[in-house]
Records
---
Amino acid sequence: MKKYVLDLTVSSVEALSPKHVLIKLTDSKPLPEMTPGQFVEVRVDGSPSTFLRRPISINFVDRDSNELWLLVAAIGDGTRRLATLQKGDTLNCVLPLGNGFTMPSQPSQKVLLVGGGVGVAPLLYFGQQIKAAGGEPTFLLGARTAADLLELDLFKAVGRVFVTTEDGSEGERGFVTNHSVLTHERFDQISTCGPKPMMMAVARYAKVEGIECEVSLENKMACGVGACLCCVEKTTEGNVCVCKEGPVLNINKLSWQI
């Protein structure tokens, strides 16, 4: 897929929580084709301590509004600077990068999309694409508290949504792999993104149940094209650059102890 370096215009910035913002970007021309699970590398201007681009998952692509959505957790100097962007500002992006999720082979397949924290970001676009193809995705979303759950209304507009919170403030108490839906229903395919311990737990569940499973890795990715080698992941086929061969990988290719 062809890659572009574009100066995109900020159409809006919405605070979703004290530490999360949704940045919507547009362009005078139609945005390039992008698949769920891919990401962009954004240049952070005005941050003296931020020398490298920041990888941000594609949260959604609104073709009607010609907008690209980026869900950003403002946790470091670079992302905190991104959170200060205003409508009309310009954000330089390299996109689309990496390989995305595998679409179900048939709309009738039951697909479970599991996200934790800001890792829910790429699952919204994936779920929308599954719905557009005639399927009905099921989302299982986890967070520490109810205040940390992001874009719930948007997920509910796309498919079924189940929630866990560590403190029990919304949904079932515990982690995503503790949710009762996993014992009551059988799924054909699982895709997950979030903290590595969560993804490893999901992968273990999928392995035991014999379910095809893909994970979207969140290794540090400075260049996005496989040149800097800072995102290398060990697999059954040798070391790969997550930014180029991933970020989405089948769990059967990973050397995780699951």
---
Amino acid sequence: MYALEVKNVSFSYDNKDNTLENVNLTLNKGEIVCLLGVSGGGKTTLFNVIAGLLKPQSGSVFLENEDITGQTGKISYMLQKDMLLPYRTVEDNVALPLIIKGTKKREARRIVGEYFAQFGLDGTQKKYPAELSGGMRQRAALLRTYMFGGSAALLDEPFSALDTITKSEMHRWYLDVMDKIKLSTLFITHDIDEAVMLSDRIYLLSGKPGTLSDEIIIKEPKPRRADFNLTEEFLNYKRYIVSKIQ
């Protein structure tokens, strides 16, 4: 059973020319899968279909074999910006999914508090988002996404706003924390290096309408070597992807 499965999905705006055409993808439990392609290729549209924000003209979306096509609130979705509420403390931002579901604030704070150390956020509970660095804000946003629950999460370019050094540090942290919490993750990026560094598999979305043109399995075991991005294996993956992306 897949954590997430997209079957034969096609989508068009206002029933005009398709933006997506017959898209099929799977996400296994505990897996990190990347959706990679050029801007305007339909990646965010596909995420909105998976999240139930858009209903496809044809095809279905399944979360652990449950048909969730066109249903919101079934899968957690982290947008490119961290979207932390500036007037709430970090712990109350992170606890928000639990509070929305009816958990009392004190209990929600207790539950999320157990994860702050694991996510490298210990000591930030009573701070406000403006007091955190960009990397720490993204950690808080990812923890909030995790607290939404469910077996899978969508991350839309989660590290794109970070500088190169911070992004590299976040990549190492992300792989470490994902190995611990086993959250099945589908993420969007335009960064080929990031896709190869983080993913178990990469889907290439290309063309108009957007279709999945290739699937690349990254065989480098996890946890990944710190210098993996300097190896010939890494460069071979990168060369292949560059040759295929249009």
---
Amino acid sequence: MKKNLESVLALYPTPAVVVGTSVNEKTNWLLVGHLGIMGHDRIMVSLHKAHFSNQGIKATGKLSVNIINEAMLPLADYVGCVSGGKTDKSEVFAWHWGDAGAPVIDDSPLVMECEVTDNYETESFDNFICKITNTYAEETILNEQGKIDYGKLKPVLFEMPTYSYLQTGNIIAKCTSLGKEYKKHMK
């Protein structure tokens, strides 16, 4: 028997990322734990409407999604604790402009530079639908085939119910391998 928890968002953990944008011609960073995949070339970044960064994202139509690792966590946590409306966060990270014009964190091992194509607004959130224009990866996190190896990347995960950061775990199986094995036994 399962207990009904009513309307509880239970899709955690999610990657913890730092979103970069420009607000009034000044770079701003924000730690974000609400984002999702909308296809192979689109993501959604969901930000409470009160966030200062939303102004810049709406004005420029550009943002970066900087995956964080454990080494980056203290600075990432800091940019999630203070408002860009009250604190200048432009120099918290060493950064440069990406090819599409969004600020990119130099130390982030994996960055997606995005163009906002839509904003699905709910009562209290801006849900920015973003087309990925560029993805930058440190060579140290790539496998022999040039693909991202998340075991090497070790992104930090965010879990809302306990408001905690988690490390990624071990690979337990390759996708479709268990289903193929099950199918063999069904014959």
---
Amino acid sequence: MKITVVGMGYDAQSVSYEGFLACKDADLLILKTEKTPVAELFKKQGFSYITLDAIYDSSRNFETLNKNILKYFKNLDKSIENVIYCVPGSGVRDRSVLFLEKNFDMKFILGLECTFNLFKGLEGDIKYVFAEDFLSEKDYNFDYSLNYVITEIDDKYLAGDLKLALLNNFDGDDEIVFADSYSSQKILLKNLDRQHAYYAHTAILLKPKDLLKRARFTFCDLVNLVIRLRAKDGCPWDRAQTHESLRKDALEEAYEVAEAIDLKDNTKLEEELGDMLLQPVINAVIAEEEGEFTVSDIVSGICRKIISRHTHIFGNVIATDSESALINWEKEKHIEKGFKSYYEEMQAVPKPFPALMRAQKIQKKAKNAGMDFSDIDEAESRLISEFEEYINSSRKGEELGDLLFSVVNLCRLNGIDAEECLYKATEKFAARFKKVEDYALKNNKTLKDYTKAELDELWNKLKNQ
């Protein structure tokens, strides 16, 4: 069975002559809804047709409606040759047609969009989206540079949900265009769910909002703001920056993010993540100016990396836990980087890493190559041995380095992060130090007023309180 979709346009004059003749000659003429001006025209012409309004009324949402319409067409007599399906608008943007297109041989005779009257004097690109689809999208997918036409707002409850979603991106007093097949009018966003009537073809138009008048922004806005700051008439400080000058800032921002996480301060974390995000964007804009790489190159690169190294998600490899997933990641990384030896992998561990972190990562590379202690007891023996070498050596700096490296090994084998371990130990020391100093101040003294023995006694007395 072949189905010809005829777009009924937005009024009786906007259906094409070809579409009118196709409907006239149909073996079976099906209207998605009778609530259109074209249905009145068909009545006057004596056309015999079936409507799907009953299916519409019995379906709880558009997803169910479109599935029910598909089911209806599948149950039609397959011997009927010339089936015409009339839908409001052009015929190609109707979601029920998208469902049918996957299951039937389709032909289209286009009409004018129901939203045609929204476009008078409109400038810029247009994005069409169904209301229910818009509700499922994330805020970060919103593009303020586009004209948004949101369709299928068929009742005030859906309009209310849509209004709440849009208030994440717009103000309630922002002006939008509200339209159906018959008319359009400008309304305030906050009144979207207070209109007189809603139909399957009711739509709204949201025009682009000026950058400086927005309450919320997108990643593209961030890039464009940095480009503006780097322009000839931009900010002198931003224009003066280079990859090298920004190196220190990138490290500082990463540490500030870490501190916010440690403090469990989500407000600070949100702010610091924004500061950290700014760093790669500035570097990318500088690189693009120099013809090195672009923001798109960075995003494409990390997306490719995520896909290629998660073969247990996007391929046929199996990972049952986080450890096996990490093994898969390292395996794919080894292949991608083209490492010919484990030493090359070690050398790829960045030298600017904190020393404890870099030591632990290099030790893991050695483990992957099969060079590791057989158990914790052996690692503890090595630690004792290194300490004895330190005691008996004149090269104290070198032996202390070996001793620290052995401590890192012991941390790793106990499943403890060496960097975090030392961080916590330092914090513990500072907290105990504060107790001793507070005790001294409470007694109108400073720490220098106590002897070494007295301080040791205070320390042991107060450390566990």
